[in-house]
Fold this protein.
Amino acid sequence: MQARLNLILSSLIILLPLALLTGPFIPDLFASVSALIFLFILIKYNETKYLKNIYFYLGILFIAYLIVSTINSEFILFSLKSTSFYFRFLLLSLAVWYVLDNQKNFIKYFTISLIISFFLATIAGIYQLYFGQNFIGIETPDARLLLIASDQALLGNYLSRLFPLLVGLIILNFNNKKMYFLIITIFISIDVITYLSGERTAIMLLLVSSLFILIFVKQFRLIRLLSFFISISI
């Protein structure tokens, strides 16, 4: 039974990048279910070693601080409704650690899921530029780009915030010369769609991430510079 639970848990986490493209409900559902499954595994199979570390204790203190700070709010019930459920994110982070220890190919499959998600986001952005609406027919507001199945104009935010994670996972899994064309294509797509999304915060985050790549990731410096200049040309 534990092996089956591990498979379900890892599958939900692997699908999170795709779920994030649909809006807040599905990824929040996946995160909550993953947290509950991991909590069950902790209790059922006595996997308490994941709770005995400084990061878990700091997480508990931070959540406790958030809950206590809401007591001073004018809208206590509304504030508690949002902060009291933050515990699921702490459990989710521990669940990722647990899956990394127990599912051999998890990182590889998660990386593939993230790459597919980025290509879908790129296709969704191009589609909206041509047709003025996303895949479910919601019109694009004020030249902003929406998520695939949502009315939230956060496509640029999605790409820019997950971009550093994508780079790290590509280095870990596919860092060879045969993959360089794919990597350059991904970089250019992210640059162009993030710029066209019209989100200034997303553009700034992407520039900061690119700067860190140029400083710290020696094998990707030339690739990042090349993709950046091609993106500017486009």
The chain has a mean pLDDT of 87. Residues 106-131 form the longest helix (26 residues). The chain is about 75% helix and 0% strand. The radius of gyration is 20 Å.
